[in-house]
Amino acid sequence: MPLGARAYDIVIAPDAIDSAGARLAAMFPGARYGIVTDDNVASAQLPRLAASLDAAGLAHSEILVPAGEASKSWGHLQTVVDAILAARLERSDILIALGGGVIGDLAGFAASIARRGMDFVQIPTSLLAQVDSSVGGKTGINSSHGKNLVGAFHQPRLVLADLAALETLPPRQFAAGYAELAKYGLIDDEDLFFWLEANYPEIQAGGPARGEAIARACAAKARVVAEDERETGNRALLNLGHTFGHALEKATGYSDRLLHGEGVAIGMVLAHRFSAKLGLAPSQDAGRVEAHLKNAGLPTTLADIPGDLPPTPVLMDAIGQDKKVSRGALTFILTRGIGRAFIEKNVDPQTVATFLEEIR
Amino acid sequence: MPLGARAYDIVIAPDAIDSAGARLAAMFPGARYGIVTDDNVASAQLPRLAASLDAAGLAHSEILVPAGEASKSWGHLQTVVDAILAARLERSDILIALGGGVIGDLAGFAASIARRGMDFVQIPTSLLAQVDSSVGGKTGINSSHGKNLVGAFHQPRLVLADLAALETLPPRQFAAGYAELAKYGLIDDEDLFFWLEANYPEIQAGGPARGEAIARACAAKARVVAEDERETGNRALLNLGHTFGHALEKATGYSDRLLHGEGVAIGMVLAHRFSAKLGLAPSQDAGRVEAHLKNAGLPTTLADIPGDLPPTPVLMDAIGQDKKVSRGALTFILTRGIGRAFIEKNVDPQTVATFLEEIR
Ligand SMILES: NC(=O)c1ccc[n+]([C@@H]2O[C@H](COP(=O)([O-])OP(=O)(O)OC[C@H]3O[C@@H](n4cnc5c(N)ncnc54)[C@H](O)[C@@H]3O)[C@@H](O)[C@H]2O)c1
Ligand SMILES: NC(=O)c1ccc[n+]([C@@H]2O[C@H](COP(=O)([O-])OP(=O)(O)OC[C@H]3O[C@@H](n4cnc5c(N)ncnc54)[C@H](O)[C@@H]3O)[C@@H](O)[C@H]2O)c1
Ligand SMILES: [Zn+2]
Ligand SMILES: [Zn+2]
C-alpha cells in the first residue's frame, strides 16, 4: 500500500498467520502485542497466531469481543480501549486485529484513540476483510444514527491475509465477501469482472484463482486509496452499492437477516438498475451483474431479504443520514455499465424514492 | 499556528466572541454550526456567541454538558457525538468548542471521530484554555486508568481567545490557568518568567499585560507544537510538572480538591525540587518558582492539598501509568534551573519514590 512514510505491505499467503511471529519480531523489535479477536475466530484461528507469536518469543495478551456487527459499538470500543490500557500496552507496542471486518474496524479505531494513537496490524480472516476492510485505514463503529458514523482514518502498519484461514469461514460469509470482491470489477475493471465470472468455480473451491482474485482486489483498493486517502474524491467509488446497502442494513437492524456484503450485493444490483432507469447504462448489464451475484449465492433483490422491510420513506431517511451526503443533496455511485461507475452528487431524492417504490 | 496546509490563526482580542460570526461566515461559506459548551459558560458567554452568529445569519445548535473534569468521559463523548449526528452536522459543517480545557478536549475529540473527522473551532474561555489547551490539537477524554489516555491529534481550524470572557472566570480558575502560563517561562524562557514576576499585578488586574502574556504563551506553545506535532520529541517539554501533577489529580479523584493547573503548579515545584536534589539545578530556583506561584494564589506543596493523599506506592503506580512512559523506564521533565527544562528518559522509579517520601 503506497502511502509515503506510512506505506505498508500487504502479504497474501496460505501461511501468513504461521509466519506472523517471525515477521513481527523483525519489524517491531521489543514490542508487546495485544490481539483483538471474536469468539468464532478465537476458536478457529487464534491458536495458530498464538503459537506463531510464542515461537518467536513475543509477549501477547488477548482481548475478546462477541462475534457480530453489534460489537462495533461504543460499549465494546470502551472495553477494548480499557483492555489495552489495563494491559499497559504503550505507544510503541502493537495491537493486532485478528478477524473479519468487524474486528478490523473496532480494533483499528481503538488503536487510533488509545494513548492518542498506537500502531496496529491487520490479520483479516474473512474474505470481506481480506479484499476490502483490512486495506485503506478506515476504522470505526456504528451509531444509533447509522453505520460507521464514528471513527478515524488510521492505517495499519502491515496486513497479513492468510488464505488457510478462509477454510473455517462459513459459506454464507464467504459469499458476502465475494460481493465486495466483484465490486472492484464493477467499478472500473470489466476484465476483472469477466475473469471472475469465468473463474468463479475455482475461486469458490479454493484453487489458485482464489489467491489471485484476492491479490487483484487488494491492488485495486490500494490504488484507489493511495490516490485519495481521505475520500475527498474517487475513493467514494468504493461505495458502489453501499448507499442502498447501508439503508437496508439499517432497516434490518444490522442483524443476521442481512450481512454487510449481502446488502452491498443487492445495492450494486440496484445501482445498476437505477442507472439503467435513468438511461445511463444498458439494462443487460444489470441483468448480467444480478446473474453472477446470484450464482455466487448472494441475495440480489429486496424480496430476497427474509422478513418485512419498512416503508420507502423510512428507507429514504436512512439514505439521507448515510454519511455520503453533502449539504443536503444525495450523492450516489451510479454507472454507465460494468466497469464504468462514477460519482453523481446531485441525485434527486424523489427519483430514488420513486425507483424504490417501483421495485418493491 | 504554522502547520503547513493545516495552519490556523490564533486571534487574541477583547471582542473575539462578538466578531466570531463575521469571521466564521467569511471562512466557512454555507457551513452550519454546533456549539459544545458547559452550564457555567452557557450562562456566562453563550449569549454573546449566539448573538454574534445570529447577526451573521449562521445556523447553530447547542450541545450542553455539565461543567467539570468529569465530562471528559466516555459517556459524555458519546452524548456529544450523538448530538452532532442528531443535528445532522456534516463533514463540511463546524463544531465550536466554547469553554475551558474540558470543553476543548471533549469537543475536539468528538469532532475528530464524528463521521471520521469534521472541522472544529476553539473559543477558549478559561485562562488555561487560552494559553494552553486550545492550541496544538491534543484532544481527548479520561479513562479509569488515567487522564487523557484516550484521544486524538486533531487541529482546530481557528482559535478565538476572547479576553472579555475572562471577566466571568472564577479567581481560582484564573490562578490555575496562570500555572500553565508560567510554565512557558520555566521551560525555556527565563526572560518571560522574570517578566511575569514583574508584571503579575497588572496581569491579575486585567490590564494590557494580560493580553501580552497570553500572546507570548500562545506563541511559545505554537513554536513547540510546530516543531513536534505528534510529541515524538521536544513537545514533551510542555509536560513540565505534569507527571507529578497527573498523579496528584488521580489521587484526588479529579475532583475540586485539586484543579489541573493547581496540580501542575505543585508538579512544577516538585520537578524543580527533584532536579535540585539530583544536583542538576540550584535550589534557589525552586524557591523562586514556589514563591511566585504561591503569590499567584496557587498551591505549591502536597500539604496544600485539602484532605488525605494515598500512600507513596499508590502515587508511584499513577506515575507509572501516565502515558509518558516508554518500555517501562520513567520519563520526567527535569530542569537545570528556571528556563532550562529538559527531557530525561531514564529516571529510576525508586529515586522518585524516595523523593516523594522525603517531602511528605
Ligand atoms: N473499514 C473498511 O474499509 C470496511 C470495508 C468494508 C466493510 N467494512 C466493515 O466490515 C464489517 C463486515 O466484515 P465481515 O463480513 O468480515 O464481518 P465479521 O467480522 O462479522 O465476520 C463475519 C463472521 O465470520 C466470522 N469469521 C471471520 N473469519 C473467520 C474464520 N476465518 N473462520 C471462522 N469464522 C470466521 C466472524 O466471527 C463473524 O461471525 C462491517 O462492519 C463493515 O462495515 C469495513
Ligand atoms: N489539550 C491540551 O493540550 C490540554 C492542555 C492543558 C490542559 N488540558 C485539559 O484542560 C482541562 C482543564 O481546563 P480548564 O482549567 O479550562 O477547565 P474547565 O474547562 O473545567 O474550566 C474550568 C471552570 O471554569 C468554568 N469557566 C470556563 N470559562 C469560564 C468563563 N469565561 N466564565 C465563567 N466560568 C468559566 C468552567 O465551566 C469550569 O467550571 C483539563 O481537562 C486538562 O487535561 C488540555
Ligand atoms: Zn463494504
Ligand atoms: Zn496542563
UniProtKB/TrEMBL annotation, chains A, B:
| Free-text cofactor note | Binds 1 divalent metal cation per subunit. Can use either Co(2+) or Zn(2+).
List the pathway annotation: Metabolic intermediate biosynthesis; chorismate biosynthesis; chorismate from D-erythrose 4-phosphate and phosphoenolpyruvate: step 2/7
Matches recorded under InterPro entries:
Dehydroquinate_synthase, DHQ_synth_AroB, DHQ_synth_fam, DHQS/DOIS_N, DHQS_C
What are the entry keywords? Amino-acid biosynthesis, Aromatic amino acid biosynthesis, Cobalt, Cytoplasm, Lyase, Metal-binding, NAD, Nucleotide-binding, Zinc
Write out the residues that bind NAD(+): G101, V102, I103, G104, D105, T125, S126, K138, K147
Location in the cell: Cytoplasm
- Write out the catalysed reaction: 7-phospho-2-dehydro-3-deoxy-D-arabino-heptonate = 3-dehydroquinate + phosphate
Q: Where is the 3-dehydroquinate synthase N-terminal domain?
A: 63-175
Job description of the protein: Catalyzes the conversion of 3-deoxy-D-arabino-heptulosonate 7-phosphate (DAHP) to dehydroquinate (DHQ).
User: What is the protein name given in its UniProt record?
Assistant: 3-dehydroquinate synthase
Its gene name is aroB
